[in-house]
Amino acid sequence: MTQTLAAATMAAYRRAAGCIAVITLTNPPVNTLSYLLRESFYETFRRANADAEVKAIVICGADGKFCGGADIKEFAGKFSGPSLVALIDDVEQSKKPVVAAIEGMALGGGLELALGCHYRIAHTKAQVGFPEVTLGLLPAAGGSQRLPRLITLTSALELITTGRRISAPEALKLGIVDKVTDKNALDMAIDFARDIIGKPLESRRLSLRTTPCPPDVESFLDEALASIRKHSRGAIAPLACLQAVRASVYSTFDEGLKKEQELFKMLLTSGQARALQYSFFAQRATKKWSMPSGATWKNTSARPLRKAAVIGLGTMGRGITVALIKAGIPVIAVEMGLKQLEAGKTVIMSMLEKEFKKKQLTKAYREMAAFTLDLAKLQEVDLVVEAVFENMSLKKQIFQQLSSLCSADAILCTNTSTLDIDEIASVTTTPHLVVGMHFFAPAHVMKLLEVIYGPRTSPTAVATAMQLAQQMEKVGVVVGNCNGFVGNRMFKLYAEQAYFLLEEGAIPEQVDQVLEDFGFPMGIFKVSDLSGLDIEWKIRQEQGLTGPKQIPGGSFRHRAGGRYSPLLDILCERGYLGQKTGQGWYLYEKPGGRVPTFNLWLHKFLEEYRELHGIQKHYVGQDEILERCLYPLINMGFHILEERIAASPEDIDIIYVFGYSWPRHWGGPMFYASMVGLPRVLDKLNYYHEIHPDIPTLEPSSLLKKLVANGSPPIGTWGAFIKEHNSKL
Ligand SMILES: CC/C=C\C=C\CC(=O)SCCNC(=O)CCNC(=O)[C@H](O)C(C)(C)COP(=O)(O)OP(=O)(O)OC[C@H]1O[C@@H](n2cnc3c(N)ncnc32)[C@H](O)[C@@H]1OP(=O)(O)O
Fold first, then answer.
1. Are residues 575 and 633 both part of a single domain?
2. For residue range 192-210, what is the model confidence (pLDDT) as tens digits?
3. Residues 6+ away with beta carbon under 8 Å from 364
4. Do 164 and 86 share a structural domain?
5. Nearest C-alpha neighbor of 614 from the set 503, 492, 456, 463
6. How far is the CA of 272 from the centre of ligand 1 (A)?
7. Tens-digit pLDDT profile for residues 79-105
């Protein structure tokens, strides 16, 4: 294996047009600048430079991809081989003109190499960028010093601190590339190289330039710092990127390089860089799904999808329709009543119109939606997504109808966030074709799709749902069937603890502040107000926790075998549903208002509530808020792993990063637990459980205890501590 890799990884050398040396970066699949490639490039470049017959050099990438940057896997080990900084310096100092022929992508170290070249020719479909910041790093092979010397400081700063990838035409506008072609970029680069032989190169060496600055550069940089602080949600890499770019303004190139290295080393050893790089690979690992039956992404084919249907045109159904159409799949959108159909149609068409403008989609996209009240029209579709209310009997009624109306091999999906997929499948004649697709609102924007299999779901149905996720540019994660699946089952405990904290003495502002300082874009109470408190209220009613269908037994503050907080129910009963009614956990200037302010009524109400129920108020500090909200959620993650509802901690983490805005620089809840240290999570859970024995979800899971007893092994090895089988899946 090593030999095959070694043979495939090289900077291949050939001659073109007599005097042009062509060096092809070859390291499949994306030509990363791994140790082997750097070694080979070092030799090959020297050879080209030394050959008197070679008058110019062109660097390109094999298989239509210039270069995906440094090999991220190498960041975890010790660096060896020639440094990229030195290689790029060799390129820039070469007396022969060097031209980069960029096809596919030039990212990170790949773009840094291209910036070391004297000219850059790109294919029109190529992308360039510095995604290092998204990996917790900065461009550290001179990129943070060369880019600001090449383009405006504003653009360089924006690209380096956000990691935004740009198209070749935009790169041309900014001045990053010299030419864009829709023909073969390599052929064009060879012709170009021939034309510039003998021309002076000094002005093309970026390290010799100074950074062009706006008039009041100091205030510009101060404002940039304030803005990055505000938007980075606690991530340190964007701030380090700014410092590096700042050095390009105030220091010589060599001093700037030193600063860049210093900052890079600091970032590389940070937990945030480890978390972000873990997240990069975790995201890709979700594509490699498996089921307990042994079916996997490798041995299962997806069905082709020519046409789909969406049933129910509420908020979710509308978003799903738009997401499908954006993915190029025509949709028949169905509602039960004319009024709802018309309302749904109006909103969907206007959403498509916006998408059409934003993404410059063709007009045909708007003609891909058909609207009907007639379920019989669904005969012709390959896949149906049901998106009606979260109500089991309604969903069963629809699936029964679908079973007789749709073709026998149509995939039947339910967009549910909590309900039992198998119970829904049980009313159909094709339970193997029933699969859960849990979209997140707004469904045409949010990246996550939980794909849920029941015990009778076929691998083909899962493969088709995963294929569809990819087609919609979403991150699909395959999970088993249980109440709330992975995301909501864990989230329930996070929310529950927040309510308990209010009962015990905290206020919403305090809880939200701690969660926002941790890196969530919004605290739990702001999120609850935004989505509407009645959403959770309805779920509680459906689960028999409150309302007319409340299961007998329990008491006001104890239900379903544990402590229960009725605070949310009380607010809903009074009509305080959040932003839409102008009052919830916070007060808003009017119904539909967006700016949360102090809610005096709630504060008085909480005092009275505590007094009425004899709750001893205590000071709730920041640590307690964070630990009480996060650790029970993490604990449930361990239960979920143990039950094999999620195949790996990576799957859970990706669900949280993409569906619940978990700060990516903390990796996800399971990675965060491994960073905090499993013994600490275990101790704290034990501690809080001792104080609150009536909250059973604080009791540490046996997997967590087992991992700690085994010395807290690295997250990648947790699978070895989980028993293989779960008879319910
Ligand atoms: C002193 C230090 C000097 C220099 C420092 C430089 C810093 C850097 O360069 S950091 C790296 C910057 N580059 C990136 O962040 C690019 C990351 N990759 C991507 O964005 C995408 O993979 C892509 C290149 C746009 C290709 O996308 P796609 O075609 O969709 O394929 P994927 O499924 O994403 O990837 C295929 C396969 O390749 C692996 N991979 C991709 N990039 C890297 C990488 N830079 N390092 C290591 N591995 C990489 C990816 O994990 C996939 O692997 P599988 O095993 O097939 O899942």
1. no
2. 999 999 999 999 999 999 9
3. none
4. yes
5. 503
6. 18
7. 888 999 999 999 999 999 999 999 999
Using one digit for the tens of pLDDT, what is the confidence trace for 607-634?
999 999 999 999 999 999 999 999 999 9
Active site residues: 112, 132
Q: Residue 498 falls within a domain, yes or no?
A: no
Domains identified in the chain, total number? 4
| The total number of residues written for the chain in this structure | 729
Q: What's the domain range around 157? A: 2-268
Testing ligand 1's pocket by substitution, the residue of 1, 5, 30 carrying the most ligand atoms inside 8 A of its CB is: 30
Q: Could you identify the atom of ligand 1 that is nearest to the CA of residue 68?
A: 24
The closest-lying atom of ligand 1 relative to the alpha carbon of residue 285 is: 57
Residues 242 and 100 in one domain: yes
Per-residue pLDDT, averaged over 507-517, amounts to 98
Query: Looking at ligand 1, which residue's alpha carbon is closest to its atom 36?
Result: 29
Residue 611, burial from CB neighbour count under 10 angstroms (0-12, 13-18, 19+): exposed
Token digits of residue 425? 């499948």
- The complex scores an ipTM of 0.99
- Say yes or no: 338 and 238 in one domain: no
Condensed to tens digits (0 to 9), the pLDDT of residues 311-363 reads 999 999 999 999 999 999 999 999 999 999 999 999 999 999 888 777 766 66
Residues 347, 435 share a domain? yes
Q: Is residue 282 a part of any domain in this protein?
A: no
Helix extents (H) in 295-426: 315-326, 338-359, 392-405, 421-425
Ligand 1 atom closest to residue 134's alpha carbon, by position in its atom list: 15
Nearest CA to ligand 1 atom 51: 281
Looking at the structure, tell me whether residues 219 and 319 fall in a common domain. Answer: no
Whether 45 is covered by a domain: the verdict is: yes
Decide if 640 is inside a domain: yes
Q: Per residue, what are the HEC states of 143-177? A: HHHHHHHHCCHHHHHHHHHHCCCEEHHHHHHHCCC
- Residue ranges around ligand 1 (CB below 6 Å): 29-30, 32, 68-73, 84, 105, 107-109, 131-132, 135, 137, 140-141, 264, 281, 284
